[in-house]
Amino acid sequence: MIDAEQWARFVKAVSRLLGWIYTLSWSASFYPQPWLNWKRRSTQGLAIDFPLLNVLGFVCYTISTCCFLYSPTIRQQYALRHPASPEPTVQSNDVAFGLHAVVLVILTYSQFFFRLWGFQVSARQRATRPVLAVVWGSLLALGAMALLVLLRSGRENQDPLDWAWIDVLYTLGYVKLVCTFVKYIPQAFFNYKRQSTEGWSIVQILFDLTGGVLSIAQLVLDASFGGDWSGITGNSLKLGLANISMGFDLLFIVQHYILYRGQGQLWKGSNEENDPERPLLSR
Length: 283
Prior knowledge:
Family: Belongs to the cystinosin family.
Catalytic activity: L-cystine(out) + H(+)(out) = L-cystine(in) + H(+)(in)
Main location: membrane
InterPro entries: LC_transporter, PQ-loop_rpt
Number of helices: 11
Keywords: Lysosome, Membrane, Repeat, Symport, Transmembrane, Transmembrane helix, Transport
Radius of gyration: 21 Å
Largest sheet: none
C-alpha cells in the first residue's frame, strides 16, 4: 500500500514531469518559424501582427509569472485571497518558459527589419491599426491599473482584499490572453485569403498543441491534489492561454492538412485588392 506521503511525492513528481515536458514542447514551438524564415530568406506568409503581439504578450506573461513565484508581497496577497489554496500554481518551469519565449519572439519580430537580416519583406507587411490599438490600449490599461493601486493603497501596507499589486499582475495576465486570442486571427485570415499555409510553419503548431494539452493536465492535477479547484481559477492565465491556443492550433491543422493541402505556392497577385501582403485588417 502507498501511504499518503508517498502518494503526495508521486503526484508532485508527475506534476513536475508534465510541467517540464510541456515547457520543452512550448519552447520548441518558437524555433520552426524563425528557422523557416531563415531558410527562405523571407518573412512572406507570416502576418507581422503575430510576432508583434507575441512580444507584448510574452513580456506580460514573464513579468506576471516571475512575480507570482518570487515576490513575497504577491505571494502573500494571493494566499489571503485564496485561503483554501494559498500556494500559486505557477512553477519554475513557467518562468523558464517565459524568459525563453521573450528572446525567441523578439528574434522572430526582428526578422521583419530588412536592415537587420536582409530578408525579403513586403512593403505592405506592417502592423494594422486594430492590432496597434490593442497594443497601445493594453499599455494604457496597465498604466491605469498601476496608478489606481498607488492612489487607493499606496506602495506599502496594502489591503490584499482591496486594490493591490496582485491586481496589476492579473491585468498583465488578461493582456496576455487578449494578445493570444487576437494574434491568431490575422494569420488565419491570411492563410484563408491565399488558400495556402506556405511561409507559416505547421511544426510550431504541433508543438504548441502538445504543450497546451500537457499544461491543462498539469493544472488539473495540481488543483485536484490540493482538494480545491480555486487553484485553477486562481491561475486563469494558464487555463485561458492553453484553451485559446489549442482552439486555434486545431484550426491551423485543418487549414494545413485538409483545406489547403498541396497548395504550396504563395499567390503572386499584382493588383492591390488581391495582394496577399496587403494589410488584412482595415487600416
